[in-house]
Design brief:
Blueprint (H helix, E strand, L loop, with lengths): L8 E8 L2 E6 L4 E5 L1 H6 L3 H4 L4 H4 L2 E4 L2 E4 L4 E2 L2 H6 L4
Antiparallel strand pairs: 1-2, 2-3, 4-5, 5-6
């Protein structure tokens, strides 16, 4: 019996504010709101992404969402559920 492919992000599109629409390799789409996480952040390295210009500089890397070479990243399972913490 073969294992299913691991979940990966295939596309990420900025929507508005701190929201990004993610499309996964199984076709599922989810709009994730990073606003609550960023507004409650205390770490200066994370707080800098409250600046929308910085926030919008995300990339897809190895099937995951990444900011500045993993300076800010989230577990793929959390992104798939649409809930980050």
């Amino acid at each position: 019996m073969s294992r299913p492919d691991p979940i990966e992000i295939k596309n990420a599109e900025y929507v508005q504010d701190y929201k990004i629409r993610l499309t996964f390799n199984n076709g599922k789409e989810k709009v994730v709101d990073f606003g609550p996480f960023l507004r409650s952040a205390r770490n200066p390295m994370t707080k800098k992404y409250r600046d929308i210009k910085q926030f919008r500089k995300f990339k897809i890397r190895y099937g995951d969402l990444d900011w500045n070479d993993m300076e800010l990243c989230f577990p793929i399972a959390d992104l798939y559920r649409g809930k980050i913490s």
